[in-house]
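Contributing new complexes? Match this layout with magnesium ion.
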Amino acid sequence: MEQTFIMIKPDGVQRGLVGEIIGRFEKKGFTLKGLKFITVDQSFAEKHYADLSTKPFFNGLVEYIISGPVVAMVWEGKNVVTTGRKIIGATNPADSAPGTIRGDYAIDIGRNVIHGSDAVESARKEIALWFPEGIAEWRSSLHSWIYE
Ligand code: DAT
Ligand code: MG
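Output block (do not edit by hand):
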């Protein structure tokens, strides 16, 4: 089954949005497969955002991500990468629809509360980077109530 990497950024943690955000993915029916509370260092953050290293906002982005603990997660389910991005909302909260996480809880692009992988291939890379020890093998007993 498809997996995605979701991270609650330092502002989401500081603002007490952890439970709310996890609840949205849980209530949708996705399965939590990995979770850790972790503060990353500069070289790790630069690896995570390597694709953006030439952008003018890169240094500020890295500073923000290392500024406090984050909640790193793996969520699993049918189409979870695309649907996860829809639950999160557009990158700039000014454009994120109400009802999405960024639409409901963020204002500035550089404080947009949450990260989600943008493709199955980047999810695979991000899960390997953040969870080198591997993730839990389990299947929810609700499976047949969520999938036909
Ligand atoms: P997303 O997080 O929606 O996948 P992205 O991968 O293009 O967006 O960028 C990663 C983060 O970088 C994004 O969540 C916020 C920040 N960012 C993106 N574009 C920016 C910009 N034009 N100015 C400032 N920060 C930006
Ligand atoms: Mg991205």
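Reviewers usually confirm one structural detail per submission. For this one: The chain is about 40% helix and 15% strand.
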